[in-house]
Amino acid sequence: MDKKLKPKDALIETASRLFKLRGYCGVGLNDIIAESGVPKGSLYHYFPEGKEQLATAAINYTKQLVIEDIQQVFADASNPLDAFQTYVYELSKAFGEGGDPLGSPIGTIAGETHTTSETIRLACDSTFKDWQAIYAEKFLEAGYSAQDSTSLAVTFHALTEGGILLALTSKSGKPLEAIANQIPFLLAQK
Amino acid sequence: MDKKLKPKDALIETASRLFKLRGYCGVGLNDIIAESGVPKGSLYHYFPEGKEQLATAAINYTKQLVIEDIQQVFADASNPLDAFQTYVYELSKAFGEGGDPLGSPIGTIAGETHTTSETIRLACDSTFKDWQAIYAEKFLEAGYSAQDSTSLAVTFHALTEGGILLALTSKSGKPLEAIANQIPFLLAQK
DNA sequence: GTCTATAACCAGATAGAC
DNA sequence: GTCTATCTGGTTATAGAC
């Protein structure tokens, strides 16, 4: 598979997909080379520092995918309420029944490695901050103060990370659905 | 260490502590026996089904610890707003600088194993539902409808799970602080 | 007989040589 | 791109201590 991808991209794509499903420690390099079809020699050619370096590339790849997804949803929304509700509702469909199984974009990796790999922890931290910056911008545009915007961005990011975790654990889109339904009330007062 | 604990309890306590910090796959049985001082033979005496069985016991142990923590905070709070804000604020202190390093109670384990171990996934799912039941009860007592109470319970649980993840990743209590500060606004309208 | 201690097992890991 | 080295994973076997 991945015949059309260059070896390096095939490695990143496969790694990011498997890490989402089983976490960093749960995926072996053998799994990645088997699924990507890229030989082990090539892996160490493109990623001489090994698994950590491949994981960092996979995290940055996932970061970009998520950014594009968020921006697409946000482009069509006129206010933060619509934007977030639509986004979480879309997540609930993606993690619900039917469709390809998805994992946590990078949350599991962050939870596993925050004490063991400073490199990966920093990659996750920077990814989280980039996502939050997009959220904060949406609040700023709507007239919220800078301080409120960043706090709300953190809060909504936490909501999505936690919601995805609950969806995966219960194998159901319902937790994210419940969260999406609450969002109008959560933002009603401001 | 753990001289005063019985071997079985020492294993559960050590396992739950290490799993919180490094996840399920990231902790080897060798780490657990080394830190607990319990020999490998005893481990398989008390947990004949091995690592999965020990992990399930560790999850249930952590579940109980968290339940007691929640109930203690909730007992002193007259309304859900105070209850949740106090709880999240307490989390922010626990995950902030100083003090023992903490990990995600079971969130990382859930993220790692949802596709690989149905046994552990179900233990995590049941733990999450038990915690949410306590949250929902607090809302019910305050006069919220049954449906709103369960939805709000899911939402606040997601907030805590996501907030803890952000705290660990950034090695800071600030994300949880920001969330705690937003809670009055999130619940203001009802 | 319950529990402990240690040693051996083999599959799998990452890594790297050829 | 294959093939090997080295090490660690979880597991099991067996012998001894209480």
TrEMBL record, chains A, B:
<keyword id="KW-0805">Transcription regulation</keyword>
<protein>
    <submittedName>
        <fullName>TetR/AcrR family transcriptional regulator</fullName>
    </submittedName>
</protein>
<dbReference type="InterPro" id="IPR001647">
    <property type="entry name" value="HTH_TetR"/>
</dbReference>
<dbReference type="InterPro" id="IPR009057">
    <property type="entry name" value="Homeodomain-like_sf"/>
</dbReference>
<dbReference type="InterPro" id="IPR036271">
    <property type="entry name" value="Tet_transcr_reg_TetR-rel_C_sf"/>
</dbReference>
<dbReference type="InterPro" id="IPR054156">
    <property type="entry name" value="YxaF_TetR_C"/>
</dbReference>
<keyword id="KW-0804">Transcription</keyword>
<feature type="DNA-binding region" description="H-T-H motif">
    <location>
        <begin position="28"/>
        <end position="47"/>
    </location>
</feature>
<dbReference type="Pfam" id="PF00440">
    <property type="entry name" value="TetR_N"/>
</dbReference>
<keyword id="KW-0238">DNA-binding</keyword>
<feature type="domain" description="HTH tetR-type">
    <location>
        <begin position="5"/>
        <end position="65"/>
    </location>
</feature>
<dbReference type="Pfam" id="PF21993">
    <property type="entry name" value="TetR_C_13_2"/>
</dbReference>
